[in-house]
Amino acid sequence: MNIAATRSLIDDDQGLCPEGHPCHLIERSDLDCDRFLRECHEPHPETEGEPYQGMPLVRWEATRDEIEAAATAGADPVFIDEARSWADDQGR
Description:
The protein is α+β, with helices and mostly antiparallel strands. The chain has one domain (3-89). 30% of the residues lie in helices and 17% in strands. Strands 1-2-3 form a three-stranded antiparallel beta sheet, with no helix packed on it. Helix 2 packs antiparallel against helix 3 (77-89). The longest helix has 13 residues, at 77-89. The radius of gyration is 14 Å and the shape is globular. The mean pLDDT is 90.
């Protein structure tokens, strides 16, 4: 997996968790699988008091050309699929 190509698809603004708390991008440099996480720092009742963690949000403004360039460069296929799906939903 090409880390830089994958990172190019991830939005700097990670929005809010399901409970409405701001999320931040976490990069775990010791892992390739699930290297990037979206996390808030507030405990959640449904996770037994642990912070919310999820897949990072892709850049909503990523163009089809940027997505395909990231795919060619070896970005994580999970993020490529997510970005393509988002672009399809937006009619791009």
